[in-house]
Amino acid sequence: MNRSDNFNKASTSFFILLFIAGLLVGGLLSIYITLQEITELNDKVDFLEDQIVDQNGVQNVTYQDITIYQNASALVELYENVKESIVLVQGITSEGGVQGSGFVYTYLNRNVVITNYHVVHDTSSLSVTFSNGNGYEATVLGIDPYVDLAVLSVDALSVEFKPIEIVSSSSLRVGEMAIAIGNPYGLVGSLTTGVVSALGRTLTEEYAGGYSIPNIIQTSTPINPGNSGGPLLNAVGKVIGITTAIAEESQGLGFAIPSNTMLREIPALITTGAYDGHSYLGVSGQDMSYNLAQDIGSSITFGWKIQSVTSGGPSEGILSIGDIITELNGTKIRNNDELASYLSDKTLPAETLLITAVRESSTIELTIVLGTRPAPPI
After folding, report:
1. pLDDT at 325
2. N or C: which end of the chain has fewer CB within 10 A?
3. Residues 144, 148, 323, 337: which is the catalytic one?
4. CA nearest neighbour of 269 among 91, 89, 92, 105
5. Is 179 within 8 Å of 191 (Cβ atoms)?
6. CA distance linking residue 13 with residue 187, whole number of Å
7. pLDDT confidence of residue 116
8. Which secondary-structure segment (H or E) carries 72?
9. Which helix (DSSP H) or strand (DSSP E) does residue 202 occupy?
10. Looking at domain 85-160, which of 1.25.10.10, 2.40.10.10, 3.30.70.20, 1.20.1080.10 is its CATH number?
């Protein structure tokens, strides 16, 4: 073999290797370009997915708007369903005319009107006017000034009565819708809405002889003079309370007697004219606090501190001035709201109550037989 043949073979091998190298480089370049395109495509897919998420977000907002509109529609229907159950209560007193609200209720097939005691207090004549404008004479069947409650009998045709249901207030929670319908300033059939803003408040009214009305519902629902006695409704139009008071010079501070109080007392008010189930301790006191504890040198910052003991009352000789009540029957008592609510819901006159109290630096347990609260100063 000559040098020329060797050269030709070497040249051929070189070009073959060069061709193969070109193929490898081209393949790698092609793969690189393809990967770049895939990356760009993934970026575009991610961008589109973000756009879809944003669009879904807009759709969610639209859905919420629709839900709000549906709730507004339900509120319209609720009003239509209950407006004929709400009445205007008017009376004559020595100082002039008074007016408030009320609602129709049925107990053992007897139609009555529920309202506040302070609406009918000291009236010489009473009338009830239904939503259709028909007015009739009314008489008081029963009253309990201690909870600002009154039941009226109305001399009207049976077709006028559109009873509304009272449901338990036990399951109420702060934040639930609260709706008031009444006659503020004589503006008949006015509806306002808000929420339950607190539970378990106490309220003291001039007709209650200084005793607290327990378990009061606090609401942001606007209430004005003339609303008194009207129903406080839940989101489905059932009575959860009766509007009774507002905090003077406040905004969004209304108060209602809870429906459980009405359900407990209405039977007695209709059949006997009064309610005698208010248990009685015969003491007065004040809420404990950090500052008060510092002032009196106590380590207890909660509870109810006794300020006076009524002579001849159930607590005479058992509780002493300065005692701090911390528990009733094993239930922690933080303040007067909780003490009044417990006595109202969990006890009756003549029952024995176990009281845990702090006297000076010692914790003691006392038993008291509850009395019956004196007749209200009506």
Report:
1. 97
2. N
3. 148
4. 105
5. yes
6. 108
7. 96
8. helix 3-82
9. strand 190-204
10. 2.40.10.10
Q: Tell me if the domain spanning 177-271 has CATH number 3.40.50.150.
A: no
Residue 240 to residue 252: CA distance in whole angstroms: 18
Of all helices (H) and strands (E), which one includes residue 305? strand 304-309
The stretches in the chain having pLDDT less than 70 are 1-73, 249, 378
What confidence tens digit (pLDDT) does each residue in 45-100 have?
455 455 544 444 333 333 333 333 345 568 999 999 999 999 999 999 888 889 99
Q: Which two tokens stand for residue 293?
A: 């504890």
Kindly report the pTM of this predicted structure.
0.75
State the amino acid at position 5 in one-letter form.
D
Tokens of 51: 């756009």
| pLDDT of res. 259 | 96
What per-residue confidence (pLDDT) applies to 17?
52
Burial tier of 333 (Cβ tally within 10 Å: 0-12, 13-18, 19+) = buried
The residue with tokens 């629902």 is 221
**In angstroms, how far is CA 256 from the centroid of its own chain?**
10
Q: Which residues contact 287 (CB under 8 A, 6 or more apart)?
A: 304, 305, 335, 336
How distant is the alpha carbon of residue 271 from its chain centre? 30
**Diameter of the chain measured on Cα atoms:** 145
228 flagged as catalytic: yes
Q: Name the 3-class secondary structure at 165.
A: coil
Nearest of 74, 76, 120 to residue 98 by alpha carbon: 120
Give the homologous superfamily in CATH for domain 279-372: PDZ domain (2.30.42.10)
Please identify which of the residues 228, 279, 315, 344 carries the catalytic annotation.
Answer: 228
Enclosing H/E stretch for 199: strand 190-204
Nearest in space to 116 (alpha carbons), one of 145, 82, 86, 87: 145
pLDDT for position 150: 96
- The alpha-helical segments, DSSP class H, found in 83-176 are 117-120
| Closest of 183, 192, 191 to residue 251, by C-alpha | 192
Query: Which residues lie closer than 8 Å to 262 by C-beta, 6 or more apart?
Result: 114, 149, 166, 239, 242
Same fold, 85-160 and 177-271: yes
pLDDT of residue 210: 77
Asked whether 233 and 221 are in contact (CB, 8 A), the reply is no
